[in-house]
Design brief:
By secondary structure, the chain is mainly β. 12% of the residues lie in helices and 35% in strands. The protein has a domain of 74 residues: Nucleotidyltransferase, domain 5, CATH 3.30.420. The strands form 2 sheets. A 5-stranded mixed β-sheet has the order 3-2-1-4-5. A 3-stranded antiparallel β-sheet has the order 6-7-8, with no helix packed on it.
């Protein structure tokens, strides 16, 4: 049974990397960690996915389109680097990933995502 809209919403973020995947779920700002399915069978009301190699709008759209086959909730799909500023608690910022692969990402004043590298 789905929770009523007045209950604590369950929000799930998924970071899909080249070698590992991290999942974080929050219910009423309380972390739900290390579980594939939340207690009581609650269904997330929305999801955010940061995918490694989700570098173009087309790639992100293909993932977003496929998610309803597994989950019945709206999803935001972005490249994993776009999650760095929000993960640091920032409303805006520029993120730089430097390692085996390098990318710099940010958003223009109108909200349009920009990326260099990848």
């Amino acid at each position: 049974m789905q929770d009523s809209p007045s209950a604590c919403p369950l929000v799930v973020g998924i970071d899909v990397g080249g070698t590992k995947t991290h999942l974080r779920a929050l219910a009423c700002d309380t972390p739900v960690a290390g579980r594939r399915r939340p207690p009581g069978g609650r269904t997330p009301v929305r999801r955010a996915v940061g995918g490694h190699a989700c570098e173009t709008p087309r790639q992100c759209e293909r993932i977003r389109t496929a998610l309803p086959l597994c989950f019945d909730a709206p999803a935001l799909v972005v490249g994993d680097a776009h999650l760095l500023a929000p993960a640091a608690g920032l409303d805006k910022g520029t993120a730089l990933v430097a390692g085996t692969g390098s990318v710099a990402v940010g958003r223009l004043p109108d909200g349009t995502a920009v990326q260099v590298g990848g």
